[in-house]
Design a protein that fits this description.
The protein folds into two domains: 200 residues, Up-down Bundle (Multidrug efflux transporter AcrB transmembrane fold), CATH 1.20.1640.10; 74 residues, Reverse transcriptase/Diguanylate cyclase domain (Alpha-Beta Plaits, 2-Layer Sandwich), CATH 3.30.70.270. Strands 3-4-2-5 form a four-stranded antiparallel sheet. A two-stranded parallel sheet has the order 1-6. It is built from twelve helices and six strands. The longest helix has 41 residues. The chain has 373 residues and is an alpha+beta fold. It is elongated. Helices cover 68% and strands 7% of the residues.
């Protein structure tokens, strides 16, 4: 941990850094490839919309059922003529979900299921969801997502600038596309909990992005009055300065979500946790990635198109070229001075044998010679 803290301090001070902005084309390519894969998954497999969005019935059995999940699915498919989804809950009961049926069909299906499961029909709880209500929930979800996006863009445009707002919006769309694409590929059910998870991870993604943007805004004050760094280089310093902080917050957020997904949903069999935990897990990881590899490099791309930033880049490069030329000249001058000194030493005649020291004219003058008079 102390090594990680020292690494973060060195990154913050700019003693070491990784060139995220300089290699942005690589990150753009990786993101485009992942996004295309997610879109293909959505187009080919589609989303497994939950009963809340398409209507249907949910039947819940009493606790400690001896019937297996596979057998209950077979009973439900036969009784309804539709594809049923069966989950085993933590208390041992079964949750049988059948989409696309109306109220009249549900009564008949309930009777047949109770007969197959050897249950009293009164003990088989049934909850009905109308198709119109599910459609209304879906529309409200899209409306909430759209309003969230608009508010994010307005806030960032006011607090920072429009280029940062555009970059943050691109990063958010990137995170949503990847998360929904993975949902399609995995086949997990999309429920209102999934929508809540999506909105939550958008907040986390925006948090990481704003942290970097705030550092970038602070470091680029009066940027045109200096000739040491270009805008892209300062943006890269901002990413490196907040890198360890972003990693720490992401890991801390991912650990409990991973517990929900892998332990609660996988090991303990609480399938109802999968809908929200998967969206949180994928979204948090995608949000941390986009804030570092997408949002800030995209801001640097947009800013460096400005005439003032182009002029700054030219001045910085010209100064560095001049400094390099002066350094080379100084090195050459030093080498020439050394060569001249060597030549002078070579030209001086070599002294062989004892050298005669000139007698001092005033030697012994005014001193007692030691002879008696």
């Amino acid at each position: 941990m102390s090594k990680l803290g020292n690494l973060g301090a060195r990154l913050h001070r700019g003693e070491i850094s990784y060139d995220f902005v300089g290699k942005r084309k690589i990150w753009y390519g990786i993101s485009i490839l992942i996004t295309i894969t997610a879109i293909v998954g959505l187009a080919v497999r589609g989303l497994n919309m939950g009963i809340e969005f398409q209507g249907g019935a949910v039947f819940t059995t009493p606790t400690k059922m001896s019937t297996s999940v596979a057998q209950a699915e077979e009973y439900a498919n036969t009784a309804s003529g539709h594809q049923a989804v069966v989950q085993k809950l933590g208390n041992g009961s079964l949750r049988i979900q059948i989409a696309g049926i109306d109220t009249g069909q549900s009564d008949k299906i309930k009777q047949e299921l109770a007969k197959d499961l050897n249950l009293d029909p009164e003990k088989l709880a049934a909850d009905l969801v109308g198709p119109s209500w599910g459609e209304q929930i879906a529309n409200k979800a899209w409306e909430g997502l759209g309003i969230f996006m608009v508010l994010v863009v307005i806030y960032l445009a006011i607090a920072f600038e429009w280029r940062m707002a555009v970059a943050a919006l691109v990063a958010l769309i990137h995170d949503i596309t990847i998360t929904t694409g993975i949902y399609a590929l995995v086949g997990f059910e999309v429920t209102p909990g999934t929508v809540i998870g999506l909105l939550t991870i958008l907040g986390y993604s925006l948090y990481d992005t704003v942290v970097v943007f705030d550092s970038l805004k602070e470091q680029t004050k009066d940027i045109t009055k200096q000739t040491r760094f270009t805008y892209g280089e300062i943006a890269n310093r901002s990413i490196n300065g907040t890198l360890v902080r972003s990693i720490n917050t992401t890991v801390v957020a991912l650990l409990p979500v991973a517990g929900l997904l892998f332990i609660g949903g996988g090991f303990l069999g609480a399938g109802t946790l999968n809908d929200i935990s998967l969206s949180l897990f994928v979204g948090l990881a995608a949000g941390a990635y986009s804030s570092i590899f997408i949002a800030t490099p995209l801001v640097a791309d947009l800013k460096e198109r400005e005439p003032a930033m182009k002029a700054l880049t030219k001045r910085v490069l010209a100064k560095r070229a001049q400094a390099g030329a002066e350094g080379d000249l100084a090195a050459e001058t030093g080498a020439d001075a050394g060569d001249d000194a060597d030549d002078a030493d070579d030209a001086a005649p070599a002294v062989v044998g004892p050298r005669n020291q000139p007698a001092s004219r005033g030697r012994g003058r005014g001193r007692t010679s030691g002879k008696r008079r």
